[in-house]
From TrEMBL:
Species the sequence originates in: Vigna angularis var. angularis
Species lineage: Eukaryota, Viridiplantae, Streptophyta, Embryophyta, Tracheophyta
Recorded GO CC terms: cytosol; nucleus
Name of the featured protein: Pantothenate kinase
GO BP of this protein: coenzyme A biosynthetic process
Pfam (any one): Fumble
Superkingdom of origin: Eukaryota
Length: 413
């Protein structure tokens, strides 16, 4: 797969002349994520020469040749509570016609689509009834790790640090990637020690995650969506709600144990002593306090688990983060504080799609590692194969917001 992050564009219009070749799903407790590949006859790719699908590239392997399909890898997300919207999108884009196993006679038999996450079980009957899709279930942890490993090894400027409003991309040497701690912040939080391709162990987790922020935020404010709550928190001041060290020590630091006056002594602690009702607090201040409480907690637990195994690098993924500056800064400060600067929090550009990418790749999971290192297909690919011709550099300030697409190439049987 040739990922060109510097050329990110909006999701393709359903009326454009494209053909869906592959679809995979990750249906979590809060969000359903889709990754699908579309080949576009009119879209020119592959550098200055501009090769379209009409001039399909060929990679030779002995006496056989395999086409390189040029197109786009598309990312899309929906709230799981609105799964019907997801189903309608799949139907309108005709994603269920392509699936992960293209049929010679579409409609002659159910189409199998790779899927992971709890929703792959919960909504299996619904997908079959509404779209005629059989969800071919893949293990959630397998997909998370496979997706993270693949993106970290292949996509230039996939990982970055963020602290004090400073974003810095981290160059990852794929030969020195392991071991690391993968912290996936979804509805809950899973912490996985990754030691290599297919070598990982879930070492910890916490039920206080994105679902907690969204759930409590919905109860305490009038926000109707996760993004609305996140935007609200950006305008808030948690000091109006949290009890700080300075509130206890008369505005002074507790320098003996290294606590500044602005450090939080008790999240939501001021609500105890203030003679005020909930309605007297600003929703944005409540949202800010809630976000900081959860982010601090995740950051601290993450570092303690990294410490257990001597891991210096912690990669945070999951849609809880959403590239939100305050969230990333809080996680980074927590890791930096508890590690005394020895460990770093790092973030992923495609943070919320790790499981979906892993599910997408699972059609050829037995040969992916070999394909990554070669410019030609070393064997007859099964169904759909992925390979990297070269790692292309993306724009330094390139962003990825979730409902977009990136140029790519795939080898097809």
């Amino acid at each position: 797969m040739d990922l060109r992050d510097g050329q990110t564009q909006q999701i393709l219009d359903p009326n454009q002349p494209t053909h869906v070749y592959h679809l995979a799903l990750d249906i979590g407790g809060s969000l359903a994520k889709l990754v699908y590949f579309t080949k576009d006859d009119n879209h020119l790719v592959d550098g200055e020469e501009g090769i379209s699908h009409r001039k399909t590239l060929q990679k030779s392997n002995g006496h056989k040749q395999y086409p390189v399909l040029n197109g786009r890898l598309n990312f899309k997300k929906f709230e799981t509570s609105k799964i019907n919207d997801c189903l309608e999108f799949i139907k309108s884009m005709k994603l269920h016609i392509g699936g992960s196993q293209p049929q010679e006679n579409p409609g002659s038999q159910p189409i199998a689509v790779k899927a992971t996450g709890g929703g792959a079980y919960k909504y299996a009957d619904l997908f079959k009834e509404r779209l005629g899709i059989i969800l071919d279930k893949e293990d959630e942890m397998d997909c998370l790790v496979a997706g993270a490993n693949f993106l970290l090894e292949v996509v230039h400027q996939e990982a970055f640090t963020y602290m004090g409003d400073q974003k810095q991309f981290v160059q990852i040497d794929k030969n020195d990637l392991y071991p690391y701690l993968l912290v996936n912040i979804g509805s809950g939080v899973g912490m996985i020690k990754v030691e290599g391709e297919g070598k990982f162990e879930r070492v910890s987790g916490t039920s206080i995650g994105g679902g907690t922020f969204w759930g409590l935020g919905k109860l305490l404010t009038k926000c109707k969506s996760f993004d609305e709550l996140l935007e609200l928190s950006y305008r808030g001041n948690n000091r109006a709600v949290d009890m700080l060290v300075g509130d206890i020590y008369g505005g002074m630091d507790y320098s003996k144990i290294g606590l500044s006056s602005t450090a939080i002594a008790s999240s939501f602690g001021k609500a105890i002593s203030d003679n005020r009702e909930r309605e007297d607090y600003k929703p944005e201040d409540i949202a800010r306090s809630l976000l900081r409480m959860i982010s601090n907690n995740i950051g601290q637990i993450s570092y303690l688990n990294a410490l257990r195994f001597g891991l210096k690098r912690i990669f945070f993924g999951g849609f809880f983060i959403r590239k939100h500056p305050f969230t990333m800064d809080t996680l980074s400060v927590a890791v930096n504080f508890w590690s005394k600067g020895e460990a770093k929090a790092m973030f992923l550009r495609h943070e919320g799609f790790l499981g979906a990418v892993g599910s997408f790749m699972s059609s050829d999971k037995h040969g992916l590692k070999e394909l990554l290192a070669n410019e030609v297909v070393p064997r007859s690919p099964s169904k759909l194969s992925f390979a990297v011709d070269k790692i292309l550099r993306s724009l330094p300030d390139g962003e990825f917001n979730g409902d977009e697409s990136i140029e790519c190439s795939v080898y097809a049987a």
